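Below is a filled-in request sheet from our internal design queue. Each sheet records the structural input a requester submitted and the sequence that came back. We keep these sheets so that new team members can see what a complete request looks like end to end.

REQUESTER: design group, bay 2
PRIORITY: normal
MODE: inverse folding
CHAIN LENGTH: 261
BACKBONE (tokenized):
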């Protein structure tokens, strides 16, 4: 996958998808800059090093542009310039519009969309100088359809537009920018929900044509491809990694056709 020796910055590194990404890219020979707002990312970076990977960490709120600039400069000083940025960090604290006040809306949009912009802004100058680089944004199927969490969804929709704008503007410098859109991913959050309701994942699975939800490694492999030279001609792409959820409404289709296909 031609990732050996490259420095890969991964936000949200201590989450379910983030940990899978760090281990995936580490196994491909990349140096890992693990970024998370939770202090536990330090312990995770230590575990990565104990597993034989090269890893540094930053405890960082990516919604703070000045802190992002400082932290990325420090990480680049330790690992070398950032070759690949994976804007993986994301969260939602407001499941419905009625439960979203103005402050909550600003917080969700800042943490999801503005944070991704801040990180891209921090790495682009060095990528321009080197005439190469890859940015892979982690959006969501929520950016394509109303599936709850309206502030988060609006931010993820904005990430799709930002991805295309970056791809258009910076392609001439050899910088590729793409976005993946995961569906429901089996992260610790969903495992916690399954502990409360053992049927929740099987209930969700019936909406997915592949009859299962997404595993973190599914997302990591798709991002690994887009970040690698094997995707050298791909930029501005919007790639669902959702077990078929965005292809259509399979539950409705079964009811309309009276067929359990």
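RETURNED SEQUENCE:
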């Amino acid at each position: 996958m031609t990732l050996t020796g490259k420095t890969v910055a991964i936000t949200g590194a201590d989450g379910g998808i983030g940990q899978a990404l760090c281990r995936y890219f580490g196994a491909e020979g990349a140096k890992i800059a693990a970024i998370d707002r939770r202090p536990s990312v330090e312990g995770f970076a230590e575990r990565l090093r104990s597993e034989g990977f090269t890893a540094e960490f930053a405890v960082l709120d990516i919604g703070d542009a000045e802190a992002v600039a400082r932290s990325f400069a420090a990480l680049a000083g330790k690992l070398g310039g950032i070759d690949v940025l994976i804007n993986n960090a994301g969260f939602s604290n407001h499941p419905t519009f009625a439960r979203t006040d103005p402050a909550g809306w600003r917080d969700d949009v800042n943490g999801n969309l503005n944070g991704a912009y801040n990180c891209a802004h921090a790495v682009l100058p060095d990528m321009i100088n080197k005439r190469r680089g890859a940015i892979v944004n982690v959006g969501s199927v929520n950016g394509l359809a109303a599936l709850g969490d309206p502030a988060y969804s609006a931010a993820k929709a904005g990430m799709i537009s930002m991805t295309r704008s970056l791809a258009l503007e910076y392609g001439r410098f050899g910088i590729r920018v793409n976005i993946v859109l995961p569906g429901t991913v089996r992260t610790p959050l969903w495992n916690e929900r399954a502990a409360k309701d053992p049927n929740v994942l099987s209930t969700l699975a019936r909406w997915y044509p592949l009859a299962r939800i997404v595993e973190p490694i599914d997302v990591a492999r798709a991002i690994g491809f887009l970040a690698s030279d094997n995707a050298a001609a791909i930029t501005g792409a919007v790639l669902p990694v959702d077990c078929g959820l965005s292809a259509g409404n399979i539950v409705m289709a079964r009811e309309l056709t009276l067929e359990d296909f």
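SHEET NOTES:
- The mean pLDDT is 96.
- The radius of gyration is 18 Å.
FILED BY: M.R.
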